[in-house]
Automatic annotation (TrEMBL):
Keywords: Hydrogen ion transport, Ion transport, Transport. GO terms for cellular component: proton-transporting V-type ATPase, V1 domain. It comes from the Eukaryota. The keyword Ion transport applies. This is V-type proton ATPase subunit F. Gene3D superfamilies: ATPase, V1 complex, subunit F. Belongs to the V-ATPase F subunit family. NCBIfam families: V_ATP_synt_F (TIGR01101). GO terms for molecular function: proton-transporting ATPase activity, rotational mechanism. The keyword Ion transport applies. Subunit of the V1 complex of vacuolar(H+)-ATPase (V-ATPase), a multisubunit enzyme composed of a peripheral complex (V1) that hydrolyzes ATP and a membrane integral complex (V0) that translocates protons. V-ATPase is responsible for acidifying and maintaining the pH of intracellular compartments. SUPFAM superfamilies: AtpF-like.
Length: 147
């Protein structure tokens, strides 16, 4: 009997999250917390950081991203819903421009599962120089290894 697989989670703009939800990745865990978050223009940096650690603490919530605001999160019981500690999540997809807003939180995550992958958005193209996984991979090889 095969065990249940792990989920893909998404933190992104409305177009990105909608596309992945239409592709079928939307799930609720046993506590009815979703594996996605739509980030919009008024979301504070703290909300994005806390969401990265505890995605889905506000079911169905749409928040807006504003890098100039650093307000505390508006929800309770974050510890019981930590996204990085959810055992049902295997991959976290995050728009690269959102990842830049919370780079220190992403860099602090050193475990292989859940894997954190930065993806482009419709309005922000992918920049390989900013990708944390590519930066780590470059540090593993010397120039002679690549010849």
């Amino acid at each position: 009997m095969a065990g249940r697989g792990k989920l893909i989670a998404v933190i992104g703009d409305e177009d990105t999250v909608t596309g992945f939800l239409l592709g079928g990745i939307g799930e609720l865990n046993k506590n009815r917390h979703p594996n996605f978050l739509v980030v919009e223009k008024d979301t504070t940096i703290n909300e994005i950081e806390d969401t990265f650690r505890s995605l889905g603490s506000l079911p169905g919530r749409v928040v807006e991203a504003n890098p100039n605001q650093r307000d505390p999160p508006l929800w309770d019981e974050i510890d019981s819903r930590q996204f990085l500690n959810r055992d049902d999540i295997g991959i976290i997809l995050i728009n690269q421009y959102i990842a830049e807003m919370v780079r220190h939180a992403l860099d602090a995550h050193q475990q292989s599962i859940p894997a954190v992958l930065e993806i482009p958005s419709k309005e922000h193209p992918y920049d390989a120089a900013k990708d944390s996984i590519l930066r780590r991979a470059r540090g593993m090889f010397t120039a002679e290894d690549l010849r």
